């Protein structure tokens, strides 16, 4: 079996095994970043018939009409809930599928830019290793954020646009398909999902393997698909209302509400990008030292990928609402650019591994050990909290008393603890209200007291106490 695998296949398997070790055990543990749990609730409720595609629903007391993001991600996640049920594993399987599709889309792009017989094609493992070892990558895929879904459609859009550029046969069809995936990307997170549109002009500018007129025509076709869709759907009142509410809740808030800011300076994402690229920079340094005398022939192609990645990142800096995981949609293009610069070093490594069977066998065994270790770690850690352990323990005790599908009251400041709201809704369909005076139960942190007329329920909670009338 060992002799049947080429060096690049062995290294690719090792790269995938390392990526899986970073991602899967943490993914199947309990607890998620608040945004991810919020989106999970919306998808779960949509599957249960609460809300609709154009008018999603979060809870009975808050965001009963949810328009913080466009609806496609929630509809996709709802499909998983309809098939797999409401187990906490459902959203994790969804995230795992998104990560696998991301890997496949990256492979499609690599195959398109390098023909079958090219010496660069076997070096796809460089792209895999550089992207999936970035801290923000496995953070995004383990926390169910929007970017973990949008990146799939952005990459497939790029793949089909590039296929239209690199082939003279049916190129218009590939551009149309690229436009469809561009539309899907925008249906995940609005304008941010449209950045692959720059690819034809970037390829004309950097590589000149496409004429200006073809690049212009490709751009027109690609943008025509989402433009036509939004023009037509605007006449459908539920869709029109949905987008009006989305623009009001997201764009107005991002530009005009100070509390929406998550950073004090607009260059936060650039600093975050540098931090997330540290593993890639480290590997690039090693590979450059290995092959510092070799000529690099992929510089212009690397520049093209870098520009596309920046097209997905730089527009996010126009507001102060910035988070590290926003980088995930542009990051695979940036890491692919770095991988292209590492090709001479990667070829040197492939040659050594191919020539020395002992090295090849060692890498294969290492990859298998990573795979076995990942399976064991996932089994042992599955269901155990990786974050918010005390809060999760409290909400399950509280739910056992209140009962599922109920409403609990709280004060204004506790109502703003969004993780509490999201976990109660996700696991028990319990809604939280700071205005409902008819609820039998009242919940507050342990250092606060309820209004008069409530007595403490004797639970062993550690962060939140439950009171009853």
Please, how many domains?
A: 2
Strand share of the residues?
under 5%
Briefly note the structural class of the backbone.
mainly alpha
Shape: globular
Q: Could you spell the SSE succession in H and E letters? A: HHHHHHHHHHHHHHHHHHEHHEEEE
| Model regions low in confidence, pLDDT < 50 over at least 5 residues | none
Sheet with most strands: 3 strands, antiparallel
Number of strands: 5
The mean pLDDT is 92
In whole angstroms, the N-to-C terminal distance is 69 Å
If strands are numbered along the chain, what order do they take across the biggest sheet? 3-5-4
Q: Please tell me how large the radius of gyration is.
A: 24 Å
Helix content: 55-70%
Number of helices: 20
Would you spell out the secondary-structure blueprint of this structure?
Elements: H1 7-27, H2 34-47, H3 72-84, H4 89-113, H5 124-132, H6 135-142, H7 147-166, H8 171-189, H9 199-206, H10 212-233, H11 237-256, H12 268-276, H13 278-290, H14 299-313, H15 331-341, H16 343-355, H17 357-381, H18 389-402, E1 407-409, H19 412-415, H20 418-428, E2 431-433, E3 441-445, E4 455-456, E5 464-468
Parallel strand pairs: 1-2
Antiparallel strand pairs: 3-5, 4-5
